[in-house]
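Hi R.,

Here's the chain you asked about this morning:
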Amino acid sequence: MVSAYIGLGSNLEDPLNQVKTALKELSTLAKTELLSHSSLYRSAPQGPADQPDFINAVARVETSLDAHALLDELQALELKHDRVRLQHWGPRSLDLDLLLYADHTIDTERLQVPHPWLSQRCFVLYPLAEIAADLMLPSGISLASLLPLCDATGLETLA
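And here is the predicted structure, written out as tokens:
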């Protein structure tokens, strides 16, 4: 079993409910246990500005699935929420990103871990720090050292 961190986001079709439901559904994934999750956060969209704000969270799971099998499970859950990929960084009903998978570094056509934008996204860093304040990234950089570099203007904790 390994620990993995999953970023959740939604800005369509009742985003608050989408993320809350997805958090519950993470505990139903094969060979995976939901250990904890952050509060929910509201954030401005990255990419095209002509879309609604996002609701975000981060979850920690323990899984015996390999990283690609976990990605398959996450993408199946996105499809269950009617996720359609029309525009890069565009609006979506549910986005599930595999942020970290143990201390592994993975770089394949389908999957990059740590998530390539992890260190630059306040809507990921702050929820992640909430549930794993002492986390070290595979690069040896501490999560705590990244927080002061991230402008959290517009990031709002909801619950």
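One quick note: The domain at 2-157 is CATH 3.30.70.560 (Alpha-Beta Plaits).

Cheers,
M.
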